[in-house]
Design goal:
single chain; five-stranded antiparallel beta sheet; elongated; nine-stranded mixed beta sheet
Amino acid sequence: MISNFLRCLGIHGRLPIFVLFCFLSAPIGTEASKQPVNVGIYDIEPLCETGGANEGSGLFVEILNHVAFKEQWDLQFVSGTLENGLENLVQGKIDLLVAADYSKNNEQGLDFTRETVISTWGQIYGPGNTGIGSLLDLSGSTVGVVRDDPYNQGLRELLKRFNITCTYVEFNHSRRVFEAIEKGHVDMGVVDRLFGAQHQGEYSVRKTPIVLTPVELRFAVPKGKNQNLTEALDYHLKKLKDDPNSVYYHLVNQILGLSGNSGASRWLMWGIGIALLISLLAGGISLFLKQQVKTKTALLIRKNEALDTEVRMRNEARKALLQSETRYRSLVENTLDGYFVFEHPSGETLFLNGRICELLGYLPGEAYQKSLWDFMLPEDQKILKRNFEAQFRKKPFDRVPYTCTAVRKDGSTFHAETSTSVIKEQGKTVIQGTLRDITELDRIKQHLQHAEKMEAVGTLAGGIAHDFNNLLMGVLGNASLVLMDLDPDNPHCERLKHIEEYVESGSKLTRQLLSFARGGKYEVKQLKLNEVVEKTSHMFGRTKKEIQIHTSYAKEEETINADQGQIEQVLLNMYMNAWHAMPTGGDLYIKTENVTVDEDHIRAHQGKQGRYLRISITDTGIGMDEKTQKRIFEPFFTTKEMGRGSGLGLASAYGIIKNHGGFIDV
């Protein structure tokens, strides 16, 4: 057996007697004096592998065998999963667990050796033609993971923070992960970087730039127990790490591919030690081997430093990417405009922010089932398709925001403004842009145009009223002079008096025109509007008994500064219009209330924000069409028959209310 063992080492010829004697006389001890130690092991190749009954291999097992030989421990290996090992350790069924992930969280329930056996991390592999460059490329993929790897849960938590959805398939060994990638059962997989470095060449897989969850792997014991085991392990681990020629570095070199002998057992390590001793006695061979170990150790240190630098850079890049994504997501989700991304030319929905879903009346999940063309009318689709095609072919097109009619989920529409661009994104041609509801903006523009129109009409009416009033005064003066020179019995006297009456009627019309144009306030004083409404409605009700009047007054009435006669004229004009709309009778509702006018209302009516008194007058009459409604405040506009109305009633009401700093609308 000894000769076979030495032949394995490549040593031929006879050994010096004293060397052989030293080997045969090494202390063996007795079984009775050994301390029994139950050790939990699980598969995490090449750090630990389970075998048959009471068997194991890998870095942790070989180091533990080395220490057990020194400390006279009788090791009993208990195979299982990592989860089983942790449960058995906490329940005291085993004394020691190998390859335990050291962290602040785990330290609360376990005690660890101070010395770290090895630091490692997870590595993502894909098929030979993989184009994976970042975590974002994992979205929608099927990922193979090893059930007992510490990177399994770490990957899930990391992707969850990035809102990346994957399908996970668990295997009991890293080899199964590589086989699943090679056969196309999964899109990619995660294995320990040490396993990947050793076995990548055996499979049609390729390493990606993505690394995961750096961990420190140590020996662990139950909390507050077996301190003698951790102290002994720390003592021997430190000695092994301090000696570049130790079995520790030999095993690590094998794992990292820096040694050609990857299957050495504990007894082979001892044989190598004896061979090194013989080589040391020989002189030159020992120096050569020592130089080799130093060179490879230095290479290992440089590789570890490079890997540490790479991990740090990737962590910084990951953090910067997360911050950038968070800022972008916050900007898109909190903008006041709707933001969309559709595929070109199909119109398939790729992204909609919360605002556009709200505008269109969809829940986010529902909206993604629709296409771009479901959100607009057919006539708008033609123009947009023409613009998209021009952008896609880089031809001249109209770059100003385009107005269209958008269609909500319930079939209702609204006037919208959209700005779009056609770009390339992840190999697809997409349409991105914004959508804004401009219905309120259009309404404000119409109000402003109407106000400008009424102001222009008022200026014109005021000028006409002045000139017409001067003509009437001339007619009245001449008629009065002629009347003074005639005998009362003269038949022309009656005609001249009729002329004076007609002039007086014309003067009333000019006063109404001037009231519209400048709304003259002649006796401004503090009024209680409830009293004015009650007085005018009571007076109107006595004459028009076929009208049922219903009133509702503000409880805490505020006073206003106004001309009472002007306000009464406005109210009576309203009552008369309501009466004309209800020739066979009906109901008239009058309501006063205190209100606060906000900024949106002010933008539409050009007034001041603050507290107002509002009078609402509603009747149950025949109503009016939209065309009539837009013109009711214009001077001389009337729907009554010729001779039954001057068309100045509501025009003068408009002028009086505007001149009192108020608003009037229908």
